Amino acid sequence: MTPPPERRRELLATAAEVFAAHGYKATTVRRIADEAGMLAGSLYYHFDSKESILDEILSTFLDELWDRYDAVLAAGLGPRETIEALVTESFREIDRHGPAVAIYQKESRHLAKQQRFAYLAESQERFEKAWLGTLERGVADRVFRADLDIRLAYRFLRDTVWVAASWYRPGGQHSPEEIARQYLSMVLDGIAVGENPEPTAKAHSDS
Amino acid sequence: MTPPPERRRELLATAAEVFAAHGYKATTVRRIADEAGMLAGSLYYHFDSKESILDEILSTFLDELWDRYDAVLAAGLGPRETIEALVTESFREIDRHGPAVAIYQKESRHLAKQQRFAYLAESQERFEKAWLGTLERGVADRVFRADLDIRLAYRFLRDTVWVAASWYRPGGQHSPEEIARQYLSMVLDGIAVGENPEPTAKAHSDS
Amino acid sequence: MTPPPERRRELLATAAEVFAAHGYKATTVRRIADEAGMLAGSLYYHFDSKESILDEILSTFLDELWDRYDAVLAAGLGPRETIEALVTESFREIDRHGPAVAIYQKESRHLAKQQRFAYLAESQERFEKAWLGTLERGVADRVFRADLDIRLAYRFLRDTVWVAASWYRPGGQHSPEEIARQYLSMVLDGIAVGENPEPTAKAHSDS
Amino acid sequence: MTPPPERRRELLATAAEVFAAHGYKATTVRRIADEAGMLAGSLYYHFDSKESILDEILSTFLDELWDRYDAVLAAGLGPRETIEALVTESFREIDRHGPAVAIYQKESRHLAKQQRFAYLAESQERFEKAWLGTLERGVADRVFRADLDIRLAYRFLRDTVWVAASWYRPGGQHSPEEIARQYLSMVLDGIAVGENPEPTAKAHSDS
DNA sequence: TATGAATGAGCTTTCATTCAT
DNA sequence: CATGAATGAAAGCTCATTCAT
Question: Which residues lie in coiled coils (chains A, B, C, D) (predicted)?
Answer without folding.
Answer: none
